[in-house]
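Q: Could you fold this chain for me?
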Amino acid sequence: MRERPFLWITYGISDITDALAARLAGRQDARVTDATPHHVPRIDEDALLADLTELLLFPSMGGTRAEVEVQEHLARRWRDEGLAVDQWDIDVEGLERDSDFPGMEVTRAAAVGVAATLAGDGTGPTLLLNGHTDVVPPGDPDAWSGDPFVPRTLEVEGRESLVARGSCDMKAGVAAMWAAVRAVRSSGIALKGDVVLASVCGEEDGGLGTFALLRHGVTADLCVIPEPTSLDIMPANGGALTFRLTVRGLATHASRRTEGVSAIEKLIPVMAALADLEARRNAVVDPLMERWALAYPLSIGVVHAGDWASTVPDLLVAEGRLGVALGESMADARAALESAVAAACAKDPWLSGHPVEVTWWGGQFASGLTPAGSSVITETARAHSAVLDSVPDVYGGPYGSDLRLLMGLGGIPTVQYGPGDARAAHAPDEWVAIDEVVDCARVLTRLIIDVCG
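A: Sure. Below is the predicted structure, expressed as structure tokens.
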């Protein structure tokens, strides 16, 4: 990874966007992409990259003020561009009481919903472009090449890329869908159907924003989420359920440890049982998921135990995620894990009398599937092939997303299709290739015209 020396962390918003423009000066073919042979209006690449840069400067981690501010920023910008903007304060507490609420892992004092419409004449279908603006924390700052929330260009795997937290997951997709709507609007093409741009919060920890969008009454005939798919098409996602294990032991002084029971040691047979469960759940998977070495992962991500080095720990709390198979109910997935834990406890003399407690909390992502042959799949593939002269792969993702809410609760056939390699998401020096962001915008522009024109 080689740094390109034109941006650095001391720049403000105007400095960075000016630097991007300067970098692109003399590259007329890149700055304004003219796809006339495929009847696609021009994408203004300068504007696209400036918009993306501004979005990346918001440290919009879930539950922070910046998560609200980036939503307010988009509402202002879209309103200034002449779109009909619906902005509302989300009733977080009220939605939490909804029986279908998808879960939440951070505390939010406020949340904002935003939907902007480019209206047609009412005689065609409505296309929803849905993207989340919340990001995960950056982790160890020393693992980054610079400030995680100040974008910079690096050459990554031979491609000029933007690096910052949220670049891949998924502010690049938000910028691309915005650029596509701008291109269509600027072209003066008359649309029959509406195009709705929705920016949502809380996707990373459950799906609050999209759930609020649906409860607010926003609907559509088909939807594209420009999550990072490397411009392949994902009509399906495995689910992901967050769980907590509470393991109890018996405390004593470490010098007499054989007279106590270590809660840490009692996690070991449970971990073995979970590994066996994971293997069984992945022995046979849906064909859409066969490309993945592990379609439905089961992992422990957090472990807390003990309060003193010289004490045998009597309490351990572990948190993890359980992958949900395509077509599997969340109830069945939970029951499988609970049964595996119970079986492991039954075999252990201590745990049989002090069984591990399993609780479910936080994000509860069901699996999601848009049926094969749905128009959103065929139309997206057609637009991709027309603009990029290639055939996209179609497969399912091994992680949860808002697709399952839009399809499952909203009845809106949905696919994920967007720029970025998902392996860069949540990683240090998260990156997205600039040319892929532009290509995504071009394809979405063609899709809008094909579906709504």
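A (continued): The chain is about 35% helix and 25% strand.
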